[in-house]
Amino acid sequence: MTEIPRERLTGSLRRAAVKKHVAAIHVSGKLSLLQRKLSNVLLLNAYDTLTTQRSHQIDAGTLCLMIGYNSNDMATLKQSLKGLAETVAEWDMLDASGRPEWGVSSLLSYATLKGGVCEYAYSPALAEKLHDPKVFALINLNIQRRFTSGHALALYENCYRFIRTGSTGWWSMEIFRRLMGLDGSSYYESFKHLNAKVIKPAVAEVNKTSNIVITPETRKRGRAVTDIRFLIKENPQLAILDLDDGTAARHGPVYARLRELGVSDRLARQWLTTHGEDQVSAKLEYVAGRKNVSSMVGYLSAALSGDFGAPREAPPPGSARAQRLGRMQAAAQARTPTQRDADKRLFASRIEDAAARADFERFGWMSALNARAILTFWEEMDPGIYDGIAAD
């Protein structure tokens, strides 16, 4: 993904973490918690090809798993997709030349469910805005799944993008109500009601559930509250769940080697964030020593996902377990880089034992300590994946 050079930005865009309108894509209506989670997962799935493909696909079972509800409940999924297609997104911001730009679009231009696959699309104008890293803050799906309140998740999303500056900056109460999906409600025009029913509970859940801690501050004119902002700092208890955008990795030698190999900027940062410089560097050395490789980037991707060359005891060739592992690896490799990253994060979120977690972080889908759970996980992701394989 090519980012607009900072020196070309003018006006508030140069201070994207301070000015309230820069990163604001307001969503009309009241998205439910499930719809908000669904919207994030669909965007994450489409992000790498957001501006180059007209439509995007994700298998419905995976989609349900990633947002945390019963994968057989297609009726709920249909209603949630319908709600996103009926929801209006509005933006009012500055373009790269500093000129005001207003726009409006449905959140999804269409969505279909066919053969267990969800296909969907964004309007070209909205896709362009969502693809701008200054507008969209990538939300960690492991954290998202922990939220039980739509207001809390909405507050988290709108605060997290300002983590680097430590404050959201001042929002008028009108803007804040719109960000929280509360505009048009006369009940919440009263700050007393808004604070008691929305702000306090949402702040408490964000601080308990997520990787940031926020503190609200208000500004008054006379006795009326006119503006609100949130001070933000990392939650030391949950900071490990944070999804770094990998910006700092651009300055390292491993990143440079990946780029020379032809790996995209976003994928290089994603690999470094997920696997760490040491592991990526080791895999680069391993891949460099292979001969007759048609695609170095593809082979490196497989090495990182499957941990080729790791000193693990392989099952006997032709055994039922080897066949299941083979199908599991093929299914994992068939996923896009973004999906593969999401798959690993989703599985890792289920591991409670520290040793098993460490083994998975090191060996990925070839983790011996998680072998049974991994095979079960992929059967949930792809029902029937092991059909025809005899039991051990």
From TrEMBL:
Residues 18-159 form the Initiator Rep protein WH1 domain. InterPro entries: Initiator_Rep_WH1, WH-like_DNA-bd_sf, WH_DNA-bd_sf. GO terms for molecular function: DNA-directed DNA polymerase activity. It holds the Pfam family Rep3_N. GO terms for biological process: DNA replication initiation. Belongs to the initiator RepB protein family. This is Replication initiation protein. It comes from Pelagivirga sediminicola.
